[in-house]
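for the writeup, i need someone to sanity check this before i put it in the appendix. the sequnce is what the collaborator sent (i think, or maybe the updated version? ugh). structure was predicted straight from it, no edits. if anything looks off just tell me and ill rerun, i have time this weekend
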Amino acid sequence: MVKRLWNQFKEYMNIEVDREVARVENSKALKMILTVGLLNSLLLIVLDKIVFDRVRYVALIGCCIFLFFLAFSYMNWPELKDGITIEVELVTLLMLVPVGIIEYLPKAEDAAFLYLILLILLPSLILDKPWHLLAMVLLAGVFALFRNHTVIEDSVRDRNFVRILSVTFLASVFISHYAHSRIKSFHLRRSTQVVAEHDPLTGIYNRAGGIKMIRDCIDKQESGTFLIIDIDDFKLVNDRYGHQKGDEVLKQVAGILQSSFKQTDIVMRMGGDEFIIYAAGMVDFEVSRKRLELLNKAIHKVVLDEKAGKYVTVSIGGAINDGSYPTYDALYKASDQYLYQTKAKGKDGYSLLGTSYKRGPQ
């Protein structure tokens, strides 16, 4: 019983975080923490000057710290992106340290509250495994208890002690649960997106998901080979062998298309028996031609009727995009024309356009 609960707790606290999501969320968190911290320090300087006609060293130190981290982050952003979670956690701890030192000075006349507010607020901005954030909160709580021992006034020290213990406990529970809930919501959003963007029969991208990704590639002028693939006489397959056999053929062809190209290439089912592929970076005409020959041979292994020696064939039309195609529609139109050339030549083959969009077909 105890072991099972412990394993559930470990699983809860160690929930996996998508690296790319964490990078995006923690980049935003770091920018917000540093920007708000700098603006707050500048505001303190202005208010000190207006109200007290002097500037406290605390505001100046805070301003310098935030300026340093802002400058350091922007100057080293490409290198920091992969370790952004560690940096934002480090910045958070370094922000808590001076606040804790100031709030728990030996001659403090009242119990501290700002440090404890920040102890709840700042870690909740970070997206990381719950146990990482729990360790950070506990470390900050221990630091506050250590600093509180320097407070001379007994009543202030006792009130601080009670507050630190209660807030550290509440912050640990809240932040751990909040981090777990955030990660789960991102998992749910991701799984919902995967379902929305993928074809339920074949498991590859569907029309909406695939077109969106290819359009993104074209907008970024990422070169590659665009292919339209039709299964030859697919209607006859359904009529002669039944729709169950037709579905099996679609799944087998989709599997061959996926295995014939890189994992980063976009493979989608446009609808019916039509598939589209965007092989990013494949711009050499001879390389593309050899890839299509191998693809045709692989698809011939999908057998329709073993006794009759019937197998699946496809017609392929494609265009190599060197970055000059302005839109998805222009690339589709060029490839579609070459698909019809393949069908006019008797199907079971390919036709490939290798010239720039601006020059047009030669």
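The chain has two domains: 2-196, 207-353. The chain is about 65% helix and 10% strand.
thx in advance!!
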